[in-house]
Amino acid sequence: MPQPTIASLLDRAPEMTGAEIAASLVPPRQFADATLESYRPDPDFPSQATAVETVRAFAEAMRGGGAGRGLFGRRKGPEVKPGIYLDGGFGVGKTHLLAALWRLAPGRKYFGTFIEYTALVGALGYAQAARLLAGATLVAIDEFELDDPGDTMMMTRLLGELAAGGTRIAATSNTPPNALGEGRFAAVDFLREIQGLADRFEILRIDGLDYRRRELEGHAAVTAEDELAARLGTLGGTVTLDDFDALLRHLSRVHPSRYIRIIDGLAGIGLRGVHTLTDQADALRFVAFVDRLYDEQVRIVSSGTPLDEVFGAEMLAGGYRKKYLRAISRLIALTS
Predict the structure, then answer these.
(1) Can you tell which superkingdom this protein's organism belongs to (predicted)?
(2) Binning pLDDT at 50, 70 and 90, where does residue 176 land?
(3) Which end of the chain has fewer beta carbons closer than 10 Å to its terminal beta carbon, N or C?
(4) Distance between CA atoms of 242 and 303, rounded to whole angstroms?
(5) How many beta carbons lie within 10 A of that of residue 315, not counting itself?
(6) Is this structure's pTM higher than 0.85?
(7) In terms of residue numbers, what domain contains 114?
(8) Residue 175 and residue 91 in one domain
């Protein structure tokens, strides 16, 4: 059996213009065909079925009212708030529902992660980014971040301007499910940060277990180092193989909004010598990278420390706990 051609992620250092970032604001490959009908509510958690019907009503109101009947417009009939926030633990299908809503929205619409919208503002400047998004029927924001006060204030201002022009807003965030001793939901923080827009959002609290763990064992698979190339060869398509530390250094030189281009067209990546991370900046960049791998369903083959142990106990006990738990869930899925 011929050995596969293996490339390196280190050779990929993409640049993206503001127009290219805007054009990429669509649901990721994994959710490109997401519909409300293909969402599978867990019967043990009725809030999931309720969420489907609430999102359906939101979409119907959007199609009936159009962009001009926006966040501050009057409407006839039963009130459906023109902003919606999907709140709950990771793995309960919030991104699926957000992508399904995006598919149902008429007219010009955008779908992206919080970091992609902030990257758009960084590339174009605030005024130009606001002009580009103005008049959209829907702006969908996945994984709304509350960690950086500056970015949060900037996004709040942007959403306020878009809402005043009639654009509907939909957002999600991630909190860990069944986390004892922690606030389960992020809605209180979200509503506080978006300030004047808070009363315009309908909050959907979605209970449930991480669907990625329903049929998976709770550990990331590990491959012996001398078997990495052969294992990558079974994935088909273009694959890469790099040292874990070399990848971390490379990611530090590329803006996270461009990580999607680093993995463009890949079937899988190999990582040699994975170890537990000690630097918070490296860890957060790796989380952003894992998110993009998961969106595009790029498989991971790795040697060394199991990837579900890549974030140490101190990190898991800190302020970014929910990010690391989400990444662990996705790493287990991508290596299984």
Answers:
(1) Bacteria
(2) very low
(3) N
(4) 11
(5) 20
(6) no
(7) 33-209
(8) yes
- Structure token pair of residue 160: 């306020």
Burial class (CB in 10 A: 0-12, 13-18, 19+), 160: middle
Alpha helix stretches (DSSP H) within the chain: 18-23, 46-65, 94-104, 114-124, 126-133, 149-164, 187-194, 228-233, 244-251, 259-262, 280-296, 313-316, 321-335
- The sheet with strand 109-113 has its strands ordered as 109-113, 138-142, 168-172, 83-88, 201-206
The confidence score (pLDDT) of residue 216 equals 46
Indicate the SS3 state at residue 189.
helix
Q: Are the C-beta atoms of 59 and 78 separated by less than 8 Å?
A: no
In one-letter notation, the amino acid at residue 111 is: F
The CATH number covering residue 190 comes to 3.40.50.300
User: pLDDT tens digit string along 114-139?
Assistant: 888 988 888 788 999 999 999 999 99
122 and 200 co-located in one domain: yes
What are the Cα distances from residue 73, in Å, to 46, 66, 69, 165, 282? 32, 11, 5, 10, 45
- Provide long-range contacts, Cβ within 8 A and 24+ apart, for 1-6: 1/233, 3/229, 3/230, 3/233, 4/229, 4/232, 4/233, 4/239, 5/238, 6/229, 6/232, 6/239, 6/240, 6/241, 6/270
